[in-house]
Specification:
818 residues, globular, mainly beta, disordered N terminus, 5-stranded mixed β-sheet, single chain, 22-stranded antiparallel barrel
Length: 818
């Protein structure tokens, strides 16, 4: 990690040396007059210090002083969206003409709910959430800090309409309205994350400490990213830029009792004469987790070491940043095999140079942070550029990145450091967007985006063929406000080509030339090409200040991934043997969305409904023998083959927040989410789609206090108690025992925290306490892959259960260097 910090430091010095180049002269010539203003409390008219004022599209931010005033001295001329936010107040969004020279008077209302947040993901430019017809959810830094989570996706799992497929605490893949895997596009600060996205059994390669907020689009309404966004888009965003002249940092620590997780993260950021930088290093380690039925779950720990950040210039001509992200994780893969007499987990041990035996684990095997085989190692590196150039009344953004994803699986106890599966994926991704000048109220963006990939097999076992992928698309999106009606929409055309390489194996199961006597084909060569037109159109009607109506229709597509097309082997993390189908067609979806938002001083009600029709839906189904029994591979795992059918998903989310005025510190929040996912024209056993989340109801009582009496030492005190009931999942893909019924369960969570300040009201640290599963309920999520591990013959229970009671303690200490 040290080498990355040195690397960024050298870049920062280089960039600083260039701040007096001709580009700087151009910047001064095109800069707007200073943009100044004052932020006050709308009720008391008192000045508000420490308020964040952010121009998201320009990556420039500042904070108000003790008198509530702020100033920007180097903004480009034009009309841009400004976001004004402070903890305890409703976020204010306004379009500002930076060339007018008029000071801004901005008044913030005490918060009852967040209805004015800015959305960046999936639209042409920063857009106010209530003005976008596309269903969108924002998870703030405050919400993320107050949750106990073991990875970046786990932190989103309580969001209505969002769930996660898990393989223990380290591995989570997002599910949006019943769709997951590479039907969900993951972005890291707006850049497409490209790991081995086809696999559910490994997580998203993002440092959760680097995430300041998350924006979630539900459905195929995004036209900026092409294939794979059929379920939606999740954008993990870092902290806002530091204001001019400031250098700051923070130390974050986290300890969790269930698996003894320890997390540490150090961040430094600054802004000197337009030179911006942020650098972060993170370390995390966890041991085996526990639950009341399995005790400690053998080989469920993980280790993680990350580094990320950016360095670049912010000037009146725009900004140019060099970004880097390095994610490195090693984790155990729980198989769930048990001893028939004691019920203890089994582990493989070498009894000779060529023999292995399974023996019950000892107490020492369940302590500490050691990992056993099978285990997985994931290393992801991305280096990219993030550019935004102001061209008069228009602007151009350009993002180019290089990514390397290395994934190794170790499964041989006799050679624990020799990877059996080893994938090396190289990706070059690009995206360019041209924002046309506003014409008759229409704001239009044209763009291209795509990627080129190459994946190689470097291990001794083979699950998917080596392949090359080319992907490209062109799009146009536009929006206009007509009175109280906001309209938006666009079109996109994509092409994707996958070329898979043939592989022949000899008698020792290793690659040989095709003409070798006795050679057997592991993978056949094939080329698949997919083309598609996507589109989206909708509107948001602000009937009154309190009532907003939304509707949107969108068409998206997803090309089959390499595993669905060509896999042929044992997939360790999924506990199954998988066979692909090269003749699969692309999935095509048509989704209708409708929503109502009603907000007053006393209640906030949001209702979102959707209907999604998917043609050629791809899923794995378990094969059966001629006699009707399960088909078992030589490894002992059941065999699954990818197939297709037409599907329909319907459902939605309802949220009701009761916050009776004048008791604005009290919130009673209730949410309900559901998905019904069926395969059309099928018998009962194959009627329902696999891996669909069950209905879920959440009810939370929360209190928030910006100030605690007359105390100057405590601020932003909160306490919460959450009851989460997940209903039984009786609608499941029962054919060939692919899935089984999952009983319902109820979990109780609690939280408490505050900011601690010194006598001058300056922040000293923030403390967050969170407890999940307070009553240590034994349960299995329907979306847990460990649910399908072997039966424990001693207890009669099948599979491994989810995490029991877990108490999390987080401490965040801000550091000021000037």
């Amino acid at each position: 990690m040290t080498r990355y910090l040195i690397f960024v430091g050298l870049l920062a010095q280089s960039a600083f040396a260039q701040t007096t180049t001709p580009a700087a002269s151009v910047a001064r010539a095109t800069a707007s007059p200073p943009v100044t203003g004052r932020v006050t409390d709308a009720d008391t008219h008192e000045a508000l210090p420490g308020v964040t004022v952010l121009f998201q599209d320009l990556r420039q931010a500042t904070a108000t002083g003790s008198d509530g005033r702020f100033s920007f001295s180097n903004l480009p001329r034009g009309r841009f969206l400004v976001q004004v936010r402070s903890l305890g107040y409703t976020t204010l969004v306004r379009t500002v003409d930076t060339g007018s020279g008029q000071p801004l008077e901005l008044a913030l209302m005490p918060a009852t709910t967040e209805i004015g947040q800015v959305v960046v993901t999936g639209v042409s430019a920063a857009t106010e959430m209530r003005r976008s017809p596309i269903p969108t959810t924002i998870i703030s830094n405050k919400e993320l800090s107050q949750r106990a989570s073991t990875n970046a996706v786990d932190a989103l799992a309580h969001t209505p309409g969002v769930a996660q497929i898990t393989t223990g605490p380290a591995i989570s893949k997002p599910i949006i309205r019943g769709l997951g895997a590479n039907r969900v596009i993951t972005l890291n600060n707006g850049a497409k994350q490209e790991g081995q996205q086809w696999g559910d059994e490994h997580g998203i390669e993002i440092d959760q400490y680097s995430v300041d907020r998350v924006e979630i689009i539900k459905g195929p309404g995004s036209l900026l990213y092409g294939s794979d966004g059929m379920a939606g888009v999740i954008n993990f965003l870092p902290a806002d830029p530091v204001e001019e002249g400031k250098v700051m940092g923070s130390i974050s620590t986290n300890y969790q009792t269930n698996n003894h997780l320890q997390g540490y993260s150090l961040m430094n950021a600054g802004n000197r004469n337009g030179l911006n930088w942020l650098v972060r290093g993170t370390g995390k380690v966890a041991g085996p987790y526990r639950n009341p039925y399995d005790g400690r779950v053998f080989n469920s720990g993980f280790r993680e070491l990350d580094a990320n950040g950016y360095v670049g210039l912010n000037k009146s001509w725009g900004f140019s940043h060099l970004t880097f992200n390095s994610f490195n994780q090693e984790l155990g893969l729980t198989e769930g095999d048990r001893d028939e007499e004691t019920g203890r987990f089994l582990k493989d041990v070498g009894v000779s140079s060529d023999a292995v035996a399974a023996v019950p684990v000892s107490s020492s095997d369940l302590r500490g942070y050691d990992l056993s085989v099978p285990r997985q190692q994931v290393n992801h590196l991305r280096i990219g550029t993030d550019n935004n150039f102001i061209l008069g009344q228009s602007r151009l953004t350009l993002n180019v990145g290089w990514q390397q994803n290395l994934r190794r699986e170790f499964g041989d106890v006799l050679a624990p450091n020799e990877p059996e599966l080893y994938f090396q994926l190289h990706t070059v991704d690009y995206a360019a967007r041209y924002f046309l000048p506003e014409t008759n109220g229409w704001n239009t963006t044209l763009g291209v985006s795509g990627q080129a990939q190459q994946n190689r097999n470097k291990g001794v076992e083979f699950l998917i063929p080596a392949y090359r992928l080319f992907d490209g698309g062109v799009f146009g999106v536009t929006k206009k406000t007509i009175g109280k009606l906001d309209l938006s929409g666009g079109l996109r055309y994509d092409i994707r080509r996958i070329k898979a390489e043939a592989l022949y194996l000899g008698a020792d199961e290793q690659p040989v030339p095709a003409d070798t006597p006795g050679a057997e084909a592991k993978f056949e060569r094939f080329t698949s090409t997919f083309r598609n037109v996507s589109g989206s159109a909708g509107g948001a009607f602000n009937a009154t200040d309190d009532l907003t109506l939304k509707a949107n229709v969108s068409r998206g597509f997803r090309a089959p991934n390499i595993a669905e097309l060509g896999s042929n082997g044992q997939h360790e993390g999924t506990i199954r043997y998988e066979i692909g189908e090269p003749n699969l067609r692309a999935e095509v979806s048509t989704q209708l969305d409708a929503g109502v938002s009603y907000t007053t001083q006393h209640i906030s009600l949001n209702v979102d409904a959707f209907h999604n029709r998917i043609n050629h839906y791809i899923f794995p189904s378990r094969l059966a023998t001629a006699s009707g029994g399960d088909s078992i591979a030589a490894t002992g795992d059941p065999v699954f083959r990818y197939g297709q059918g037409d599907a329909r998903l319907v459902g939605g989310e309802i949220s009701l927040d009761i916050h009776p005025h004048p008791l604005d510190w009290l919130h009673f929040e209730n949410t309900f989410s559901m998905v019904r996912a069926t395969q059309l024209n099928q018998p009962d056993s194959t009627r329902y789609l696999p891996f669909i989340p069950a209905n879920r109801f959440q009810s939370e009582l929360r209190v928030n206090f910006r100030k605690v009496g007359q105390s100057q030492h405590l601020a932003n005190l909160y306490a919460s108690f959450l009851v989460e009931h997940t209903f039984a999942q009786d609608r499941f893909y029962s054919a060939y025992s692919t899935e089984t019924r999952t009983p319902g369960y109820t979990l109780c969570n609690a939280g408490l925290g505050a900011d601690v300040r010194n006598a001058k009201a300056q922040p000293l640290f923030s403390l967050y306490l969170a407890a999940n599963n307070l009553f240590d309920v034994g349960y299995q999520s329907h979306l847990s892959r460990l649910k399908y591990a072997d039966v424990n013959n001693v207890t009669g229970r099948r599979g491994v259960f989810n995490m029991g009671r877990n108490v999390s303690v987080k401490l965040v200490v801000p550091l000021a260097f000037n």
